[in-house]
Write a structure and sequence with these properties.
7 helices, 22% strand, alpha/beta, Aminopeptidase
């Protein structure tokens, strides 16, 4: 991969620190390794707290264990009832989960840092979701489902939910990028871009977010809008928001379509490109500034 411009030269190192902590030091984190899951939640909450954000936990019981979403809130100065959600899941699928999804959580933490001095008109919620992975995937036990359901019941005005899902692996090798059947000819064959993904119902928010990203960043990006039945289109927490009618999009390196270590014990921190991740996060920062204004 080429060297992309990064305004904050310390950002790649901070992203790596978070990924190492979650994937290498804490490791596999799920309700089935409850102490590790709890440790990860505590780490994320502590990082949010360092930035002066209001931190709360949305707790619920699963398999006889307490699990929780970690929510950091940055109130809007003008329209506090209008909410922008930026989220990433912090649990894993029986593996270290460096790319899936310590990379997304690292990005989430650093976005909170980068936006800590922002005078935002709308409220921004930085949410680390629990229980995204199997066996809870696409069920009411997902942390994001619990959150979105509660938000709908309370008539919360969520203007957009942006989900960071596996954002750490990139390659300039030809044909390093794969796609669902018949889609390959329409998209790049090198895995050197970040994708903004959604279904046809959420085409507007996908294109808006991708457009804002590309306006402020030279990092390669693609907007991918497909039907729900295409494998991968709804494979993260944005699915939960769709169930309750909230506009949502996924930001991803496309996971198993380029990353051979997806859901494997080999998904470890040294395989990720932290400078590319930093360039992506700086672009997402601009997206959130635009959405929050």
């Amino acid at each position: 991969m080429p060297e992309f411009y990064v305004q904050d030269e310390a950002l790649p190192g901070r992203l790596k620190k978070h990924v190492v902590k979650l994937s290498h030091e804490i490791g596999d984190r799920s309700v089935f390794r409850h102490s590790a899951l709890t440790q990860a939640a505590a780490y994320i909450a502590e990082e949010f707290d360092k930035m002066g954000l209001t931190v709360e936990f949305q707790k619920y019981e699963l398999h006889g264990k307490e699990t929780k979403n970690v929510i950091a809130r940055k109130p809007g100065a003008k329209n506090p009832d209008e909410i922008i959600v930026i989220g990433a899941h912090y649990d894993t699928c029986f593996n270290p989960g460096a790319n899936d999804n310590a990379s997304g959580v690292a990005g989430l933490i650093e976005l909170a840092r980068l936006l800590s001095d922002l005078e935002n008109k709308r409220t921004i919620k930085f949410i680390a979701f629990v229980n995204e992975e199997p066996p809870f995937f696409k069920t009411e036990n997902m942390g994001s489902y619990v959150y979105a359901k509660s938000a709908r019941e309370q008539n919360k005005d969520i203007k957009a939910a942006i989900i960071l899902e596996t954002i750490g692996f990139y390659s300039s090798r030809p044909f390093s990028q794969r796609y669902p059947l018949l889609l390959g000819p329409f998209f790049p064959n090198r895995a050197n871009f970040i994708a903004f993904v959604g279904n046809s119902t959420n085409k507007e928010i996908v294109n808006k977010v991708k457009g804002s990203f590309s306006e402020h960043s030279d990092f390669p990006a693609a907007a991918i809008v497909l039907f729900d039945f295409v494998p991968g289109v709804d494979f993260s927490d944005h699915w939960s928001f769709w169930q309750f009618g909230f506009p949502a999009a996924m930001v991803t390196d496309t996971a198993f379509y380029r990353y051979e270590h997806y859901h494997q014990s080999t998904d470890t921190y040294e395989k990720l490109d932290y400078r590319a991740m930093a360039a992506v996060i700086e672009g997402i920062k601009k997206v959130l500034i635009s959405l929050a204004e």
